[in-house]
Records
---
Amino acid sequence: MNRLGVVGCGLMGSGIAEVGAKAGCDVLVVDTNDEILGMAQKRMQASLAKQEEKGKLKEPADIIFGRITFTTDLKAMGDREIVIEAIRESINDKAALLTKLDDIVSDGCIVASNTSSIPIATIAAASKRPDRIVGAHFFNPVPVMPLVEVISALQTNPAIADATHEFCANVLGKKVIRATDQAGFVVNALLVPYLLDSIRMLQNGIASKEDIDEGMVGGCSMPIGPIALCDLIGLDTLLLVAESLYAEHLDPGCAAPALLRRHVEAGMLGRKSGKGFYTY
C-alpha cells in the first residue's frame, strides 16, 4: 500500500501524514476548512525543517513535504488504499465520517481509526462494510513515538488487521502490538487510571503538581511526570478517554476527577491551549 489518506489534521493527523510522507507514501490529507489545513502545513513544514537541520532525514524536507496533498474535499479519498481517521474523539463524529466514506472509498480500501479509547466494534457498526474497519492507534508525537496498537473488532476481517499491521510495521517503520477490542486497548487501559490517580492526588492536596511529577521521574525513572503528561496529551482528550473507559468498565479508578473537568470547562486544555495544570 502506498496511497495513504488521513482525515483530520490536528496534532495526530499531521503526525501520521508526516510519517507516511517520510516513508515514501503518496499522502492525501482532508480537513473541514482551509485555515485548519494551513496550520497543519506550517506544523509539518516546521517539523521536517527541524529534522533536516539535525540530519535526521534521508531526503530533503521539501521533497518529503511534496508528497502530501491537502484538500477539504472528502471525495478525493476515492483512490486511497488505506484511510486513517484522526478526527476528534467523538463516536458521533466518527460514525458520521464512516458513513460518508462508505460511498467514497473502494471496496478494497482499509479504513483505520486512530481512536485512543472507543471500542472499534462501536465505530465499525456505523459502516456498511464493518469487515474493513480496524483500529490503528498512534501515539503523540507521532514522528517520535515508535508504537502503533492495531485492534480488531468482532467484525474485522483478519486479513484487514494483518494488512494494517504490515503497513504500519513495514511501510511506516512502527513497532506494532495487537490488542483485543476493549475501551483503551492496552496502553490507555493501563496509563489513564494512573494519570487520573495523579490528578486526584493533586485535587486532594497530598502533594504539589511539581512534587508529584518529580516523585515519578526521580523515584520511578519515568521520562515525564504524570501531571505534565496530562498537559501534553490534552486535558479534553484525557477526559473523553476517561469517560470511554468508565462507560466500558464501570471502574471508579477510571472516573474523571472533578479537577480535570473544571480545567476542561475553563478551556485550560494543556500545552495546546497554553495553560493546563502548568502554564506554557
---
Amino acid sequence: MKKFKFKKIDAFATQQSDGNPAGMVCVDSFNDTTTDELLRIAQELKGFVSEVGYVCQTDNTFVLKYYSSEREVDFCGHATIAIMYDLIQNSDKLINMSEIPITTKKGNLTVENRIAHEDAVFISAPDPVFSTQEIDPARIAEALRIKVDEIDTGNPISIVNAGLETLIVPIKTLQGILSISPLLDELKEFCVRNTIDIITVYTDEVAHTANTYRTRVFAPTFGYLEDPATGSGNSAFGYYLLNNKMWDGTFMSLEQNGSFEKPNNVKLMVHSTPEAKTRVFFGGGAIVRIDGKYLLP
C-alpha cells in the first residue's frame, strides 16, 4: 500500500465564498508512481475536489502535474494556487522567498510570494496562443442554452490558450451571465467537437464595485460542469483583454461563479519578462479544509 501526504484546499476562497476545491498530493518522485495511479486517485476523489495536483520537489524547483477524473490536465490554475500557497505558508525557507520556480507541462513558471502583505500568491500564466478558429455565435448560444442576443456582439468571441484551450464569450448583462444553465453532456459534446477545453463567459456588469468583471468558467471535458474559481480560464481572459486593448495590465480583481452575493475572487496583473514578453499573473489565497494521508492499495 502506498501512502501520500494529502490535503483538500479551497483556492480563491474568501470569508464570504467557498472557493474551488483542489486535492494536493505530495510525492517523493514521479518515478515512484504510474499515470494509472495518478488518474485513479483523481477518479476516487471525483465530486470531492475539482482536480488533483501532484507535487514533488527537485532541487530548488517544484514539479507539478494535474489530473481530473477524466484525464491528465496540462495546467490547473486553482490547484497551483492551492498547492503553492500551502507550501510557502508552511515553510520557514519559502516564506522568506519572493519568487519560487515551478515546472509544469506548460513549461517553467514563476510563483510570486505575496502572502505577508496580500495573503496571496501569484502564478505566471503560460504564454498565450491565439486561435484563428471561428465559431458561430448561434452554436455557442445553443450549447450554453441561452438566446443568441444575450451574447455581446460589440466585443469579440475568441479562443485563447493560456494553459487550456479557452473559448471566451462576452455576455451583455450580469443577470444574463448568472442565469446560464447548460447541460453537462451537451456542453461537453460541443467542446469536444470544437477542440475546446473550457469556456469562459464574462460581463463588465458586476455585483461588487471593487471588481472589474464577472466571469464564469465551464469545464465539461474534465468531468464536471462549472469551475467556480480558476486561474487558467481567467488568465486566458486577461490575455484576451490585453490583445483587444480592453485592459492596461494594472492590478485587477475579478469576481467568478454563479452567485450574485458570494462570488469567488481572482486577481490579475501583468509583468514584463526579461525577454520583453508580457506575462499575465493570476493570484489569490487558499484555505486548508482537510490535512491527512491518502492510502492507495
---
Amino acid sequence: MNDLEFKSMLDHYSELARNGINRYLPTANDRPPRLHEAMRYSLEGSGKLIRPVLVLAGNSIFPTLADPIPAAVAVECLHTYSLIHDDLPSMDDSDLRRGRATCHVQYDEATAVLAGDALLTHAFWLLADSYQDLPEIATSLIHELGDAAGSRKLIGGQMEDILGEENNYTAEQINFIHLNKTAALLTSSLMMGVYMTMANQAIYHSIRTVGHNFGLAYQIIDDVLDATSDSSTLGKTARADIVNEKNTYVKLHGLDHSRAKAKELTGAAIEHLAQLDADTTFIETLIHRLEFRLK
C-alpha cells in the first residue's frame, strides 16, 4: 500500500470515528453542560484515534454483520476515560494530552473525575443500546471490552505501574504492565471489529495474537518516545515516566534493545496478519507505520 492509499484510508476511518463521536455522545448543551463539555473536550482533541481505527479496520477484513461505528466510539470513550484519570494529580499529574491542556487543567479535578466516570459508563451503555437487536454480538462486544478494561488488565496494569514507582521491576513485571495497561485494549479494538463479521474461532485466535504482539510493540515505542522526544512532538507531557520514576522497558533494557524488541514484535504481528486469507494490507501498513515513529 503506497503512502497516498494509506493516508486516504486512514483519513476515511478517522473521519468515520470522529463523526461517530459527535453523533453518539451527549451534546455539550445537555444538562449538566460542564460535564458534557468536559467529556467532548477530552474526546475531540487531536488524538490519533488508533483504537477506533483498529475497530473499523478489523471489521473490514471480512463481511460484516453489524455497523462497527458505535463499537469504535465505545472503545474511544473507554480509552479517553483512562487517559483523563491517568493524567490526574493523584496519578501521573500531567498538564498536556493530545496537544492540549489535560481535562483537570482545562476544567478542574472533580469535573475531570466525573467526565472520566461518565465516558466509562457511556461506553458500555452505547454497546448495549446500539446492538440490542443483535444480542450475541452485543454480549461478545461487552464481554471483550469489559475484560480488557477490568482489574486484571487495564486497571490492573495501571495499579502495577503506580506500585512500580517505589520498586525496581523485573522484565516479567514490565511485560505485565505493558500487556495489560496498553496492549489489552489495542487487542480488543481489533477483536471487537472482527466479532461483528463472519469470522471463525481460528481467525479470532490469530487476531488476538496479532494484537498481543502489536500492542506490546506500541507501548515499548511509547516508552522510547517518552525518553527521547519533547512535549510538542508527543502532544503530551514528555519524560513523565522519568519524572515519576516509572519502570519502563527503556529503563530496564535500554534504548537499543527496546528499539530492537519493538521491531521484532512488529514483524511478528505483520507475519500473523499475512497468514490470514483476507486483505489485511491496511492494518499491516498501520502497524508498520507506528513502528516508524521511532525513526
---
Amino acid sequence: MSLSTRRYAVSHDEAAQAVVANGMERNGQHLWFHLEGLKGIGKSTLAKELARLLPNHERRDVDCVAITAGDLGIPKFKEADDQDFVRYIANEILGLHTGKPLIITLDELSKAPREVLLPLLRLGLEREMFGYRLHPDSVVISNGNLTAENLGDGFQAHQLDRFTIMELRTPTNEEWIGNFAVPNNINPMISGWALQTPELFQDWRDVPNPDDNQYIDHPQAVGRRKGVTPRGLAKCGYILDNREGISDHLLTSMLAGTIGYYAAEQLMTFMQIADELPSLESIKNDPSNAKVPSNVAAVGLVVYRALSNIDRSWVGAWMTYMERLDESWGALFVQNVSDPRFNKDRQSQVMTNAKFTKYAHDHQYLFNTADVV
C-alpha cells in the first residue's frame, strides 16, 4: 500500500465507528468493510470492540483458512410435488439459523481457498447464503494482511469492488495500553515497558534500515525470525503472569520465542526496575509514606499495577498516594478508569469513591458518571 494510501489508514476505534455507522442494512443498502493491516495488530480482535458497541448482537468468528467448503453447509434432501431436491443447511458457526443480529468476522478471507471464498462473498455482498437471510442489523466484516507482507493475500478486481477496504494502522503505544492492555488486564510490567518504548509499535515500512529498530518484525532484517507485535506483547503478559518459580534463563527464552531475542533482553532489563516499586501493601496501609520511585518508568508501573488491581477497599488509600505523584500520572489514571472499556466492576468501585470524584473535580477532569454500571 502506497504512502499516499497509508495517509488514510484508520485506528481501531475509527474502524469500529465506521462499521457501526454503515455496516447494517438500511433501505436495502450497507457497506462491507474489509480491513487490511500488518500481522498481529489486532485485526481479529476488532470484533470484540464491535460486540461492546453492539451489545444486542451475537458475535460469530470464522477462520476462513481453517475450513473447507463442506464446513460452510451440508446438503439436506427434500421432496416437493414428488420431486427430489437439495437444500443446504448452514453451519452453526455462521449463526445464520438464529435469526438474530450478528457480528460476523471473516478472518483471513483474503487467504481463503476459492471454494470457501465464493459463497462467503455472496454472504457479505447480498447478505444471503443457502437460503438464509441475514437480520438487517447484522454486520459482516473481513480482514487480511497487507499485500506488501507477501503472505498470500489477494482478491480479483471484480471481488475488490464488493468491499470498502480500509487499512487498519498499527496502534500507538498509548492507544494499545489504554484500549487493550488495561481493559484486558495485561500484566502491568508490559504496559510500563510499552509506555517507555514507543518504537515497539513502529510500522516497518517507516524503517528503511531494519537495524534502526531492532524490536520490530521487519521483512528485510537478516536472521530476525521474530519481532514485537501487539499480539506478541499480550502473550508476554501471560508469560509474566505465570513466571513464579521460572528461572531468568527460561523466562528470557520464552519471551525471545514470542517477541525476538533483542526485545526479550530489553524487557528483562526493564523488569529490573521493579526493585524500586513500593509494595501494594505499603500503599494500602501507609499511602502518605509509601515509596515513590525516582525512575519515571517505575512510576508508570506503579500506576498500571494499581489499574490492574484496584478495588473498593483501597481506592481511598490509592488516591492519597496518587496526590504525591506528578499530575500527569493522575490524568492517566482517571482517563483509563473512566474509559468505557475499563473493567465495569472496578470502574464502579473507583468512580463512586468520594476521594476520586473530588480529585477529578479539583483537576477539572470530565467524565460521565451516568455511564458507570
